[in-house]
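#help-structures
NK: newbie question, is this the right format to request a structure? protein is CMP/dCMP-type deaminase domain-containing protein
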Amino acid sequence: MSNDALIAAAEAVLNPHRVGDRLFGDVGAAVLSAAGNLYTGVCIDTASGTGFCAEPAAIAAMVTAREYRIAKVVAVWRDDEGRLHVLPPCGRCREFIRQIDADNLGTEVVLGRGRTTPLRDLLPAHAWPDPLD
């Protein structure tokens, strides 16, 4: 799947709206599994900090289908002027992707229309350290 197609899938689930003091759906994510299946999700922002990013929402749908290996991932957000932005995964999401399956260090993270990088390059020093003694 091309970066443009994956970005379009993430954009398609954007639906920002407020319920009380909570914001739902202002970031959308799309995950392409190693088997070629597409999963999407949105973020949930809560005042208490118990919300989550869009990437784990999409990954949860993938895991529900008993898939764990991620070929490609992207998250998008639209600013107040209507411009679409690709967002790199935050540190928590980077680690979450890695922990879903060890092979996900090779996941292509979409950083723009023609730009990707493997997760391992965004998550340095990810191996458990050797003992000092």
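mod (FA): yep, format's fine, and the tokens are attached above. The CA atoms of residues 105 and 120 lie 5 Å apart.
NK: thank you!
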